[in-house]
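Q: What structure does this chain adopt?
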Amino acid sequence: MKPTTDIGVAVLKEQITKSQQTLNETRYNPMSVCEWFGSAHQVTYVCEKFEKKGADNRLERTRAVVITVSDKGFRGERQDESGPLLCQLVTEMGAQVVSTHLLPDEQEQIVSLLSCLVDDGEADLILTTGGTGPSPRDVTPEATRSVIEREMPGLAELLRWDGYHRTPFAVLSRGVCGIRGKTLILNLPGSPKAVREGMEVLTPLLPAALALIKNETPIDGLCTP
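A:
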């Protein structure tokens, strides 16, 4: 099986190729300079440094928290598969998963946990899975928005943009991404398939995002917006 980093690079290359075909022509080499791709609301930077393997795409010093939001999972009516998978994927990137949580779809409980984790300085990265759809009980985006201080819409939009090329239903996800203090909070859908595919796309981007949030220089000079 290919490492997660390699898969993420391959996915980004494929997206760039599709973008080039849509634009018909470009005067830039997409893997040698930072380049826009997607619509005006779906913008992501792609850098030649993604070609490199190892430390520049890993999260050795990152403390991660994984939160599964699911009524059925909380009641024991459904086994949580997405949470453990997310732990595995982020651990493969070198991060330390310091805690995992399983919550019902209750906005106040999600807000309380997110706030405490950040304000107590327990996490650099918080990944949630579940509760991002349009049903009345899906409140993870609302809870996240009430906690974050600044949005990072590009990452959430990238997940929908990439997911749309796999299934059109991906655009029904309302997940958001944002910053509170020096912690990045990111919503992923609830299905294991969506979690795996989402992390494939995010893998090359998270190290740079987390470094910049801490006002640090991304390792090995990754492009910065």
